[in-house]
């Protein structure tokens, strides 16, 4: 990113969304983590304005500092690297400024991270009115769906009811983050054959928890913003197929509220019965998302996966060459949000 872009410290507080100037450093494990960003969106913020943040939210879109700055960096100082640019830098900067200017102070306080406006600008192919409309809808959705409560439910001060919901949904290991691709993007494993719930709302809460965890682990590992999905249909039968309303709800969340987040989705060795399920799901998926889906069969599929992943660290369903430790839900959920399983 261009050297003229300023460096800002950003904090986000779960109890208050008001902006204020702060100059604190993370000196202990319980102190707020300093999130530093040289991102394009940094140019859109007023210098020295910070957000208030609680320690338990330190995992949101962060990665260990990898650059040398004037002030000493410690293990809690981090930087967002971001993803590949879609437009010239000046165009993206101006687009983000216009989107940010259209947000209220309250909405700005609910931005998930410093790159959020940029992702919506890119997702809408530079159409600023569309990007503004979409990001406003997502900010309202994040508030109403209680995304922060979901994301932080396993922290010491987390919501107990939400914690029980996520624990129950996760106990079979139907979705979890484990390992990374060769560029440091987390791998989110989906096992539809292990579905254990028909409660649509709780299912979606668990999906959101999983997406937020994939985002946090990717950011911590590499500073990137996109994650991979590996779908294993081992043991899948049509009786495991979700209701149409669940499919539509899932697609809505992924496409409308997490744009520019999925890097690739790999469907590994789908059975013949999957064709019926795919014919139902396909109409709800937009062309851009469909282009990110890769169906992996046999030797050709193994070659695709080998290009993206170190097969010694992936699970057998993704052509892994080693027998990895069995998933343990309790261990996974009680680890920091920014850690994948067995990390």
From TrEMBL:
Molecular-function annotations in GO: phosphatidylinositol transfer activity
SUPFAM superfamilies assigned: CRAL/TRIO domain, CRAL/TRIO N-terminal domain
InterPro entries found in the cross-reference section: CRAL-TRIO_dom, CRAL-TRIO_dom_sf, CRAL/TRIO_N_dom_sf, PI_Transfer_CRAL-TRIO
Domain of life: Eukaryota
Protein name, per record: CRAL-TRIO domain-containing protein
Boundaries of every CRAL-TRIO domain copy: 163-326
Organism: Ditylum brightwellii
Cited Gene3D superfamilies: CRAL-TRIO lipid binding domain (3.40.525.10)
């Amino acid at each position: 990113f261009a050297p003229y872009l300023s460096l800002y410290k950003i904090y986000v507080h779960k109890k208050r969304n008001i902006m204020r100037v702060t100059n604190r450093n993370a000196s202990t494990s319980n102190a707020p983590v300093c999130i530093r960003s040289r991102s394009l969106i940094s140019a859109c913020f007023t210098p020295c304005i910070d957000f208030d943040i609680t320690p338990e939210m330190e995992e949101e879109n962060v990665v260990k500092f990898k650059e040398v700055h004037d002030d000493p960096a410690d293990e809690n100082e981090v930087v967002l690297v971001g993803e590949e640019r879609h437009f010239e830098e000046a165009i993206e900067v101006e687009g983000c400024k216009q989107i940010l200017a259209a947000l209220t102070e309250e909405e700005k306080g609910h931005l998930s991270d410093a790159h959020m406006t940029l992702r919506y600008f890119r997702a809408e192919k530079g159409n600023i009115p569309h990007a503004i409309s979409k990001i406003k809808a997502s900010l309202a959705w994040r508030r109403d769906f209680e995304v922060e409560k979901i994301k932080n439910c396993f922290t010491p001060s987390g919501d107990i009811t939400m914690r029980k919901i996520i624990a129950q949904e996760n106990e079979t290991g139907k979705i979890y983050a484990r390992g990374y691709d060769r560029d440091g993007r987390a791998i989110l494993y989906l096992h539809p054959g292990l579905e254990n719930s028909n409660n649509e709302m709780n299912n979606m809460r668990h999906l959101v928890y999983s997406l937020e965890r994939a985002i946090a682990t990717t950011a911590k590992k590499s500073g990137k913003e996109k994650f991979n999905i590996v779908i294993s249909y081992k043991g899948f039968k049509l009786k495991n197929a979700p209701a149409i309303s669940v499919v539509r709800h899932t697609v809505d969340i992924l496409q409308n509220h997490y744009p520019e987040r999925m890097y690739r989705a790999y469907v590994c060795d789908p059975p013949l019965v999957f064709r019926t399920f795919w014919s139902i799901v396909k109409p709800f998926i937009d062309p851009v998302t469909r282009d990110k889906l890769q169906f992996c069969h046999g030797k050709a599929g193994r070659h695709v996966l080998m290009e993206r992943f170190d097969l010694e660290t992936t699970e057998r369903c993704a052509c892994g060459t080693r027998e990895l430790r069995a998933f343990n839900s309790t261990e996974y959920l009680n680890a920091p949000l920014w850690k994948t399983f067995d990390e």
